[in-house]
Design brief:
Chlorophyll a-b binding protein; 45% helix; two-stranded antiparallel sheet; 8 helices; 4 strands
Length: 340
């Protein structure tokens, strides 16, 4: 509903409300870009030089807040100048337009981008944008917080020794590089024992010390997390894009006719749902055979080995960081998809 716990809109001032909504949308858009800016450099960076005169290459610029110490002062000035030009000259508010709607910008505030003509689709996209923007504002603050305390936005809380939340609880561990060999002596924390909470097991499932049970539960957790990440994307993407043409020519059902979310099940042909079950069953029972540690099916990063692409991560530190990030993101996605 209309969430205003501080009663900022209680005075009924339309102009003030419009200004606050414009600010909210702007901050949401900037935060969405900022989140993408944190994630993308983990996987790809531009080739060549960022500052030829200073001899700084793009690949030498660290991710996150520490990048500010590496970028030359002239580069920081350019960023500020560009943001100022966009704010003061290009994306100027028009009293005759809705908050966040600019004459020379389209969808998502993209300069010279196209708008959405269909009124219902436009309303749905605007609602999705403001919701995603609110989520991104929370996400980027979390990234800043974690980056500032640990030097990384991706779960390296072990670097933050002063955490008051650290539990120091032991974790049934196992060798993650490259394959399962044997449980480590005792119960040592590795993947999944994510600081600051350590081994968070309020129901005591791991108290019996049974490594095989722990391994089975970790496999299930990873699988559910991966499915939830895909499901979350599956909720978001159709708000902005759907395939052209027919989903089911025999029933005259087009992709654009399929609603988003749970309602899609009501218009899907039974044969289509049967295909889902058959494909999932094939992947689960026949194709994916576990190799080594839980969640490793020998298909490489993101399973790209299934389509003939070599995507293995050989660097031990990078691999460990990605595995920790995956399980953290999977846990978040499980909570997110339930909320959706």
């Amino acid at each position: 509903g209309f969430w205003d716990p501080l009663g900022l809109s209680r005075d009924g001032d339309t102009a003030t409300f419009k200004r606050r909504r414009s600010t909210e949308i702007k901050h949401g858009r900037v935060s969405m870009l900022a989140c993408v800016g944190y994630i993308v450099p983990e996987y790809v960076k531009f080739p060549g030089y960022l500052a030829p005169k200073s001899g700084i290459m793009f690949e030498e610029v660290p991710n996150g807040l520490t990048a500010l110490a590496k970028v030359p002062g002239a580069g920081v000035a350019q960023i500020i100048a560009f943001a100022g030009a966009m704010e003061l000259n290009f994306l100027t508010a028009d009293p005759g337009r809705a908050p966040g709607d600019f004459k020379n910008a389209g969808r998502l505030g993209i300069p010279f981008g196209g708008g959405i003509e269909d009124a219902e689709k436009r309303k749905r996209s605007l609602n999705a944008e403001i919701a995603n923007g609110r989520l991104a504002m929370m996400a980027i603050i979390g990234m800043f917080f974690q980056d500032g305390l640990t030097g990384s936005a991706w779960g390296d809380w072990l670097l933050y020794d002063d955490s008051p939340l650290r539990s120091f609880a032991p974790d049934p561990g196992y060798n993650t590089l490259p394959d399962w060999v044997k449980p480590k002596n005792g119960f040592e924390g590795l993947i999944g024992d994510q600081a600051p909470l350590g081994l968070w097991d309020p129901l005591g499932f791991s108290k019996d010390g049974d490594i095989q049970k722990f391994r089975k539960r970790r496999t299930v957790e990873l699988k559910h997390g991966r499915v939830s990440m895909l499901a979350t994307i599956g909720y978001i993407v159709p708000e902005y894009y759907k395939f052209p043409g027919y989903l089911s020519p025999s029933t005259d059902l087009k992709f654009v006719d399929v609603p988003n979310g749970l309602k899609a099940l009501s218009v899907m042909p039974a044969a289509g749902i049967a295909q889902f079950f058959a494909f999932i069953g094939f992947i689960e029972l026949s194709y994916n055979k576990e190799l080594g540690e839980p969640g490793n099916y020998g298909k490489g990063l993101f399973g790209l080995g299934s389509v003939g692409l070599s995507a293995s991560v050989s660097d031990p530190d990078v691999r460990d960081r990605k595995l920790r990030a995956e399980i953290s993101n999977g846990r978040l996605a499980m909570v997110a998809i339930i909320g959706m």
